[in-house]
Amino acid sequence: MSIIQIKNVSKSFGPKVALDKVSLDIPEGRIFGLLGPNGAGKTTLIRIINRITIPGGGEVLFKDRPITDEDVARIGYLPEERGLYRKMKVGDQVMYLARLKGMSAAEASKELKSWFVRFGIQDWWNKKVEELSKGMAQKIQFITTVVHKPSLMILDEPFSGFDPVNAELIRKEILRLKDEGATIILSTHNMESVEELCDNIALINKSHVVISGGVDEIRRKYGDNSVELIYTGGTLSSVEGCFNITSDVENTGRHTAVISINPESNTNAAIAAVLAQNVAVNSFKELIPRMNDIFIKLVTEE
Fold first, then answer.
1. Per DSSP, which regions of the chain are E strands?
2. What is the mean pLDDT of residues 27-45?
3. Is the pLDDT of residue 225 over 90?
4. Each residue of 97-135: pLDDT tens digit?
5. Could you say which DSSP state residue 240 is in?
6. 100 closest CA partner among 73, 67, 60, 138
7. What does the alpha-carbon distance between residue 88 and residue 128 come to, in Å, rounded to a whole number?
8. What phi, psi does 24 have (nearest 5°)?
9. Domain residue ranges in the chain
10. What is the distance between the alpha carbons of residues 193 and 168, in angstroms, rounded to a whole number?
């Protein structure tokens, strides 16, 4: 079931077309990566989902009906543009934002303090926001985004400003929230995080959806039938009609080769053709392109 359906959504700002009949289905209970270069239309689409911006055409459905302000009030939204009231105490700030999401004072205090302990920042409750480092402020804003346990969370560049340790902390929390049933739209340029976290993705470029689908499905689609072969006992040669050797690096008698299997052939035939050359195969691994390479390929081709 889709929690969000985007149907032929368009938006222009004067002569600039930000989105041109974009359609997407965002499945419930999944992490959905919204990808694209700067200026592609991602932020405009996120703002339309949150009803900050009204589309010029098309519609957004929430659980099969037009999305309403009441639905948006229950969404957890972490915008790329961060903002906290610098002169407020941290505890007063997070309580204020939690109450805006409909939480009672007692519930908000209990949940927020639990999150502060989880993130190891409980000593900062009574300090002023202006004393926070960038990474600490990021943690505070992440907490205020998810504390009311929304069924849908939209996280725009959630790892920005974090060191590797804290980025890993946020990754683990995103996965935990998914395991508890939340749907998460993740907008990021970090392709490593996309591969680690996302079940599905959509790539937007120049106001259009270039590709969408499951991450594994897309990675395999853009593979080129290449495999990495580690072997000893001789030197391989290409076999016409079966495979070509793309590279072969030898180190103290151990070869690491990349071979490209002919589309008319298959993996079993390639293995048989390799073994027929009297070499010892140590490993045979399919090479699937990284999301970063696919992103670059699709965007530059566009």
1. 2-13, 16-27, 31-35, 57-62, 65-66, 76-78, 152-156, 183-187, 200-205, 208-214, 226-232, 243-251, 254-261, 280-286
2. 93
3. no
4. 999 999 999 999 999 999 999 999 999 999 999 998 888
5. T
6. 73
7. 6
8. -150, 150
9. 1-75+150-223+290-302, 88-147, 224-286
10. 10
Q: pTM, whole model, 2 decimals?
A: 0.85
**171 three-state secondary structure:** helix
CA 205 to CA 185: how far, in whole Å?
17
Structure tokens at 16: 């600039």
- Cβ atoms of 201 and 42 closer than 8 Å: no
In CATH, 1-75+150-223+290-302 is 3.90.190.10: no
pLDDT score, position 302? 64
Q: What is the DSSP letter of 288?
A: P
Paired with 250 in beta bridges are 255
Phi and psi torsions of 229, nearest 5°: -120, 125
Q: Which tens digits make up the pLDDT trace of 151-209?
A: 999 999 998 878 899 999 999 999 999 999 999 999 988 888 899 999 999 999 999 99
